[in-house]
Structure prediction request, 221 residues.
Amino acid sequence: MTETNALLSEGIGALCKNEDEHKRLFMLLDRYIKEIELFNPAYGLVGTSDTKELIVKHILDSLAPLEIIFRLLAELTTDSIPKIADAGSGAGLPGIPLAIALPQCEFTLIERMGRRAGFLMNTKAVLALSNVTVEENEIEKAAPNQFDIITFRAFKPLEPKLLKTFYNICKPGGIIAAYKGRREKIEEEMSLLQEAYPEWEAIRYAVPFLDEERHLLVIKR
Prediction:
């Protein structure tokens, strides 16, 4: 096993204790990483060419809040298959790792850029992800009231217009889950949005091998 494969395996092991599930996750995520590295030079999918950084800061970071997402799924009032959107999916982060880890949920990866949407469609086929749909579209043009949870990785400040768009495509009682960094920055952002979006919490999660502060910002509709 290579050093990077060992890093991925150990990281998955820190998040998943089931041996069979660990093997499944490792196999699919390893293939996914190879697809990103193959297309990244031409498509600019992620801002790194270092495999270790890709594994830790992108793949494991996408999977690290799984326990929080399991809890959010349990809180949904729907009896149907949970529908999760990955907004501005790009390379499929966090949508593809989550879709691999949550085969019981339906995922829609929304990406406006044609080349990146093409990459997502190709990756869906390569990994045989039957629970994934790729929508080449702007978020603002997605159909309203269709998703139980909307995820996105947002290390830039949230904007009222963007949150309003997410509210529009989220089902009543649904959840917006934003991958964010430091608590201080989240509180600063939400202080400007508190009146319009009072029901929110920032839940800290740990990423294996990453000594940086990470939170899942949960906003309920």
The first helix runs from residue 3 to 15. The longest strand covers residues 170-180. The two ends are 45 Å apart (CA to CA). The mean pLDDT is 94.
